[in-house]
Specification:
Oligomer: single chain
Shape: rod-shaped
Largest sheet: 8 strands, mixed
Distance between the termini: 71 Å
Number of strands: 15
Subcellular location: Cell membrane
Keywords: Cell membrane, Membrane, Transmembrane, Transmembrane helix
Membrane topology: Multi-pass membrane protein
Domain Tyrosine-protein kinase G-rich: 211-259
Structural class: alpha/beta
Helix content: 40-55%
Radius of gyration: 53 Å
Number of helices: 19
Family: Belongs to the CpsC/CapA family.
Strand content: 5-15%
Length: 581
């Protein structure tokens, strides 16, 4: 399980900075999806009609109604979407849709403290929305008028029947009164009954006259529907903004998922938090050394290695003298760190030996330390361990840092298991006895087991981590390898990706192969070729006098042969070739 990271703003900003392209692509996809959805969705238009509702004799306000008047607007709002009103609206619209389908597209709102209904209709065209709203308003008013008129007619009919019945009763009373004896009690009772009936008839007649002259006023349209200019749905701005926001959130989520499962180390914080390792120094593109020289002590990069030197010296116990620098991935990160650390140690006046044990993958990649420090590429460690030269011959003093001596990697790959030889242990013991510091430039732990073998002979180890090339499992494995051999790991030196930091290679090869000199008896018996390397000087680091002196030294040297590569069969005797022809 990964170590937890500090949940600060810089961490989240770093994730966004490294994976901004994911968020950008997701946001663009969200914007495109919103635009596509807007174009694919059907357009919906709305139009509203304001209807003033007037009270009729049949209106009764229910308890808790919307207004305090005689009209219950909650009931009236429900009536607008009723089947009867929808049927009348369908007739007015001459639509083939069923009243139930039309009723689904209508909505009613009641403004506060008013007796007004806002009847809104939705349609796929502006004309359909306008005509639909007006049709439902008109149908509602007609339905309300018809309902009121029907109630009024029923009242007239009922009242007319009562008047007819009362007239018949009054006619009978008059006939009985005509036959009654004057002055009798029957006459008195009949006159009283006739008077009451006549009064009731007069009252009913007056009410009937009032009902027959009543005009029904159910309401009126105070604001007719208008032709909408733009659709209310889909809303392009809302859809596109929502799509962009969802895309951004999805992009951020994908960025954090990629960050969590990304094994590459992208910053010094990744090395510290995800690799659970102390970071001794962190360099950037401005302070990272190149392959043409070591860093100047007062430059930005030189100050970083000066602080690294101080931390190493403060951490090492007094008896610890040998430091191995290895990499967490293939590459030259360990070479740059080891060379500049050795130079920083040597500038304090201490005797420092830099051993190049990072054997090149090919002859073309040979002699990086020689180019950086201005020394000869051969003889080196491979020649020393093979017994071809002694320690004093392999040690070369750098021209600009007198306290720094270097043993290069040599001109040829060593035999398998040579890093575990007793000769290497004896060499390190000899250098330890001289009282100075020894810095070993080891290969990466991911490329060979030599790093672990060299670390077992050292007193402390430093890991060189190249960002965006080193991966977290390799870093953890490197720390585990060092732990298993019992070598204390001081920490890591973090460098940026070195692909774009290399200087242009010279036109001449770093190592050249020359045929062996002829002997009086013909070619050498071992059919070998001599591996030599031309002397190189870092630009603007060695004076002209020093260059001339070094060239004179090489010219006067009688021991030019350093490393030997077995070339059996590669160099042929011209005489033998002639005989064959």
């Amino acid at each position: 399980m990964e170590a937890s990271r500090p949940a600060d703003v810089s961490h989240y900003l770093g994730v966004f900075r490294r994976h901004w392209w994911i968020a950008l692509i997701a946001t663009g996809a969200g914007l495109g999806a919103g635009a596509a959805l807007t174009s694919a969705m059907p357009k919906v238009y709305e139009s509203s009609t304001a209807v003033l509702v007037q009270a009729v004799d049949q209106d009764t306000n229910a308890q808790g109604g919307r207004t305090k008047g005689s009209v219950n607007l909650d009931t009236e709002a429900q009536l607008v979407g009723s089947g009867a009103v929808a049927a009348k609206a369908a007739t007015l619209l001459r639509s083939s849709r069923s009243p139930i389908e039309l009723a689904k597209d209508v909505s009613v709102e009641v403004p506060a403290n008013t007796t007004v209904l806002m009847i809104t209709f939705k349609a796929d065209t502006p004309e359909g929305a306008q005509s639909g709203s007006h049709a439902f308003a008109e149908a509602y008013l007609r339905n309300r008028e018809e309902t009121a008129q029907s109630g009024l007619d029923q009242q007239i009919k009922t009242l007319s029947a009562k008047i007819k019945q009362l007239t018949t009763t009054l006619t009978g009373i008059n006939a009985r009164l005509a036959r009654a004896t004057r002055g009798s009690s029957d006459e008195s009772n009949l006159q009283s009954l006739r008077q009451n009936s006549q009064n009731q008839l007069n009252g009913m007649t007056g009410k009937l006259n009032e009902l027959t002259t009543t005009t029904i006023g159910a309401g009126s349209i105070i604001s007719d529907a208008r032709l909408p200019e733009s659709p209310v749905s889909p809303n392009a701005m809302i859809n596109i903004a929502t799509g962009g926001m969802l895309g951004l959130l999805l992009g951020l989520a994908l960025a954090f998922v990629r960050e969590r499962y990304d094994r590459r180390l992208r910053s010094a914080a990744d090395v510290r938090d995800r690799g659970r390792m102390n970071v001794l120094a962190a360099l950037d593109e401005r302070t990272t050394p190149h392959f043409d020289d070591v860093l100047q002590p007062y430059g930005a990069g030189g100050r970083v290695f000066n602080r690294l030197r101080n931390e190493v010296l403060a951490t090492l116990p007094p008896e610890a003298r040998i430091i191995v620098v290895t990499g967490a991935s293939r590459g030259s990160a360990s070479t740059l760190v080891a060379a500049n650390l050795a130079a920083a140690l040597a500038r304090t006046g201490s005797d420092v030996v830099l051993i190049g044990a990072h054997l090149p993958d090919s002859v073309v990649d040979a002699a990086p330390l020689a180019r950086m420090l201005g020394i000869s590429a051969v003889p080196g460690l491979s020649d020393l361990l093979a017994g071809r030269v002694g320690l004093n011959r392999a040690l070369q003093r750098t021209p600009r840092i007198p306290s720094l001596r270097v043993i290069t990697t040599g001109g040829a790959a060593t035999a398998a298991g040579l890093m575990q030889s007793q000769r290497l242990k004896d060499t390190l013991d000899t250098l330890r006895g001289q009282g100075g510091y020894v810095v070993i430039e080891a290969p990466s732990t991911a490329s060979s087991a030599d790093a672990q073998s060299l670390a077992s002979l050292a007193d402390a180890a430093i890991l060189a981590v190249e960002l965006r090339r080193s991966r977290r499992p390799a870093l953890l494995d490197a720390a585990e390898q060092l732990r298993r051999v019992g070598t204390p790991l001081l920490g890591a030196v973090v460098l940026p990706h070195l692909t774009n930091l290399r200087t242009a290679e010279p036109t001449a090869p770093a190592v050249t192969l020359t045929p062996p000199p002829a002997t009086p008896d013909g070619p050498r018996p071992d059919d070998t070729a001599v591996l030599t390397a031309p002397q190189r000087f870092p630009t603007n680091t060695v004076s002209a006098a020093e260059k001339a002196a070094l060239r004179q030294r090489d010219a006067n040297s009688t021991e030019e042969i350093t490393a030997v590569i077995d070339m059996s069969g590669a160099v042929k005797d011209p005489a033998k070739d002639g005989d064959k022809k």
